[in-house]
Amino acid sequence: MAKIVQCVPNYSEGRDLEKVEKIVASYKNREGVKLLSCEPDADYNRTVVTVIGDPVAVAEAVVESAGVAAEVIDMTTHSGEHSRMGAIDVVPFIPIKDMTMDECVDIAKKVGEELFQKHGIPVFLYEEAATRPERTNLAKVRKGQFEGMPEKLKDPQWHPDFGRDEIHPRAGVTAVGARMPLVAYNIDLDTSNLEIGKKIAAAIRHSGGGFRYIKAGAVETKGIIQVTMNITNYKKTSIYRVFETVKMEAKRYGVHVTGSEIVGLAPMEAFVESAEYYLGLYGFSKDKVLETHLMD
Where is the Formiminotransferase C-terminal subdomain domain (predicted)? Predict the structure, then answer.
């Protein structure tokens, strides 16, 4: 059977849609590659792209797209609410069908090497592809962001896995890795007080004593505060649990939750428990969903 890999590259451009179109063109009308979504966000100044397909074809498209991003994005003038260190900021590979995590690690290493060889972009390997324990966590890799990377790379501990200890002058640094599917999830609060958002984010994330599989922060966007997070294991930390906990924490500060959003794509299974919880269903599972059987 044909192997299928998913890739979710994040680009540090979400305002100039002409540039975004040039960047994602590498994924369109390409044999073996299917572009599933492209979601630019002006406040974050970031675009999240989701593609699936043949591992070799997807890897080639990513490398080509990275070259375009390095040409059209100038990180020296970049600003936005999302943490970032490079024009193509992060590139995770995810096993979908007949793929092992080890195979995704191999793809990550190959792409990382080519990003430097072809485009001169230094690369850190992260998550399952990490070569050192401190590089497993993307937040630690990205710490310092673009502006702090020139100094960070002088530290022998942070020498890139591929490339020299100096950033690409316009495109910065990229993290390439392998991981299981995650849910990128944001919750809106009816406040403009960023400190409240930060306190709530600290309460729910693992490093603050919250959920084991939550990485969270807070940003100001569209005149409100958003608690932004990655649910790294949706099977062990359900979306509804996080949503209800944020609602509870918000009440402490006289703040209400007004909505939430999924960034990029998420597995259908991630929503099953939430549907069961909010609808009061019993005996419910993904086997009750018609589309599950249509995909068999």
Answer: 181-293
224-275 tens-digit pLDDT: 999 999 999 998 999 999 999 999 999 999 999 999 999 988 888 899 999 9
- The strand pairing partners of 35, in sequence order, are 51
Contact status, residue 12 vs residue 66, Cβ threshold 8 Å? no
**Does residue 82 have an active-site annotation?**
yes
Residue 256's CB is within 10 A of a number of other CB atoms, namely 12
DSSP state of 86: B
4-178 placed in CATH 3.30.2130.10: no
pTM reported for the whole predicted model: 0.85
3-state class of 19 per DSSP?
helix
Q: Where are the domains of the chain?
A: 4-178, 183-294
Longest pairwise C-alpha distance within the chain: 57
- CATH class entry, domain 183-294: alpha beta
